[in-house]
Design goal:
Distance between the termini: 46 Å
Strand content: under 5%
Mean pLDDT: 84
Structural class: mainly alpha
Low-confidence stretches: none
Helix content: over 70%
Order of helices and strands: HHHHHHHHHHHHHHHHHHHH
Radius of gyration: 21 Å
Number of domains: 1
Largest sheet: none
Shape: globular
Number of strands: 0
Number of helices: 20
């Protein structure tokens, strides 16, 4: 009996139906229960479970959550959002700015970063303009996932591909194969969301209000920390283009931006106390449960038994989309890369892996870490939640259209 796989399926079912049950357990509690179950039943040793928790990702999330709390608590995030989105005169224009702006920023600052900072902004925009928050949260989720496809630093799996297989030509490869289809995919995402939620984005006029700072001293620190984040990201881009991106890990960038908040902010204790600890617990538990499932070898054996042709572009694109729902996109990429090494491997196979493993996050809510961040962040503010089907129905349409777009481009280009 494959206990870890059974536990994983039970966790998925519990998360899918939690909104129609009286308890309405938060997703972090469900995932934590799943991780505790595999440890308690001896499916994974405690020491192995601890090693499974990725310290780099956990550190990245901690420092980015800290910066986000400073931006939000000080009121600077509201002021920044007003400056960025005040150009939208209608709800339709606001949706366009959310999809295009968040999509493009996610290619530069990594999708998880934009998910962290963007969630409170979406909730603020919903309150200010009387728009239901769920369509805006979905627009944020789909846009940060989609936009991150076109850059080697847009998400962790792309970075893994860039550093492991394309250390000297990552930006050129991503630019050639993925920039144009990503822009088209963002446009398709906007049109699909506008059609799907036409009652919310019918073109009603908006009146923007200028936000006031609640804590000017904290806002000043948060502003400089945000500028430092941008500067370190530019350095990361240059180093990655030169084939030395591994010399500046993403957790160092996050720490460099978050440390000023921790050291200089007058309300540092309150920021740490109100940090999004439930999301950190969710990720720690997810690492443990996924490691337990991975160690059973179930997916590896099934993959080999199916006789899948790994050197077919369309196959890699489709398989990576569906397998990412079960074992997460970063472990999937880690599995594929050793099988795609060699001088004869076409670059577009790697680009198919990058595209498929990333847009997998648009299919189901747990297909991408950024989705979980948005879900947990919205729920932690006791305002809104995204249901499994609320995400999956428009997500399936968006994923299907995007799969066709990326597949066509990858097949046509040599």
């Amino acid at each position: 009996m494959n206990i870890p796989l059974i536990v994983l399926l039970l966790v998925f079912v519990a998360i899918a139906v939690r909104q129609v049950t009286p308890a309405r357990l938060p997703v972090w509690q469900i995932m934590l229960a799943g991780a505790a179950a595999v440890v308690a039943t001896g499916q994974i040793e405690p020491a192995v479970a601890l090693r499974a928790i990725d310290p780099e990702i956990m550190a990245f999330l901690f420092w980015m959550f800290l910066l986000d709390r400073a931006l939000e608590t000080s009121g600077y995030l509201e002021q920044l959002a007003c400056d960025l989105f005040s150009r939208a005169s209608t709800t339709s224009g606001l949706l366009f700015l959310v999809v295009s702006g968040c999509g493009l920023f996610s290619a530069l600052l990594m999708n998880d970063t934009i998910a962290i900072v963007g969630t409170p902004v979406m909730l603020l925009l919903a309150r200010q303009h009387g728009i239901h928050a769920k369509p805006l949260l979905l627009a944020l989720a789909f846009s940060v996932t989609t936009g991150s496809v076109m850059s080697p630093i847009g998400n962790p799996q792309n970075l893994l591909i860039a550093l492991d297989a394309l250390p000297a030509s990552a930006f050129a490869a991503f630019g050639r194969y993925l920039v144009i289809p990503t822009i088209l995919s963002l446009a398709a995402t906007f049109l699909i969301l506008k059609l799907f939620f036409r009652e919310h984005f019918a073109g009603q006029e908006l009146v923007h209000e200028k936000a006031e700072l609640r804590d000017p001293k904290m806002a000043a620190v948060a502003k400089w920390s945000l500028l430092l984040l941008l500067a370190l990201t530019v350095i990361k881009i240059v180093m990655t283009a030169a084939g030395k991106g591994e010399a500046l890990p993403i957790c160092w960038i996050a720490a460099g931006a978050g440390l000023p908040v921790l050291l200089l902010s007058p309300g540092r204790a309150r920021l740490v106390r109100t940090l999004d600890w439930p999301t950190l617990l969710f990720f720690a538990a997810m690492f443990v449960l996924m490691e337990s499932v991975w160690n059973t070898g179930f997916f590896q054996h099934a993959f080999a038994a199916a006789g899948i042709d790994l050197f077919d572009t369309g196959t890699i694109l489709v398989v990576s989309i569906f397998l990412s729902q079960l074992i997460s996109n970063v472990p999937l990429v880690a599995l594929f890369l050793p099988l795609l090494h060699g001088p004869e491997v076409p670059v577009k196979l790697l680009m198919a892996l990058a595209a498929g493993s990333t847009i997998a996050g648009n299919l189901l809510i747990f297909g991408a870490a950024s989705n979980v961040i948005i879900l947990q962040s919205a729920e932690s503010r006791c305002e809104h939640s995204l249901g499994f089907l609320e995400f999956a129905i428009p997500g399936a349409i968006i994923t299907a259209v995007q799969t066709a777009i990326y597949g066509l481009f990858l097949l046509l280009l040599p």
